[in-house]
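Dear colleagues,

As part of the handover before I leave the project, I'm documenting each prediction I ran so the next person doesn't have to rerun anything. This entry is a single chain, and its sequence is reproduced below.
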Amino acid sequence: MLVPLLIVAIVGYLLGSLPFGYWVARSKGVNIFEAGSKNPGATNVRRVLGAGPGNLVLFLDALKGAIATGWPLVGAAVLGWPHAAEGQAAFDAVPCMIAGLIGALLGHSFSCFTGFKGGKGVATGAGGFLVLFPLGVLVAAVVWGLTVAITRYVSLASMLAGVGLTLAAWLLHASPLILGVCAVVTVFVIVRHRGNVSRLLAGTETRVGAAPPKP
């Protein structure tokens, strides 16, 4: 089991490391690490370059999370690894899927292609959980949408969406493994938003529709 976990985690990290926000902004002549909030995530790309590039980055970041999480199912179904020994339960792909998701989140946030800088993992995590725990993502999406509509703070919506995901896993009696990874990823996302938390408390956080922060 260890070899598949390592393979999936490494592939997940490399997929997650693909810096789509940086590349899309570069194609428009912008270094996203020097513009707006200097974050390569979809929110900052959208603020700096508009809805088209921002939505493209959102889709690509979510896609890499979904692929990193979902491709272990191919390993289990097609490649047949690891084979279950006689008398043992069939191979459970969920641990490998979780390894792929965690790898993708780490790659997105600490990309080896951009000097270990990266985004906050919200879109990549959402793509991964869409494969791993789709009902939880639906709950998180509702929480996210309501929070943005009421407060116009994307950062707050992203953190509360993570909390909603974890609560959904608990209330829907998801497996302890799924509940645990939801909680860990939520904490990770909140920690990645610590700068936003400081600005929220200070009343200086940028709202949806506002001009991007000056360097």
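The first helix runs from residue 2 to 17. The chain has two domains: 1-119, 133-208.

All the best with the project,
I.
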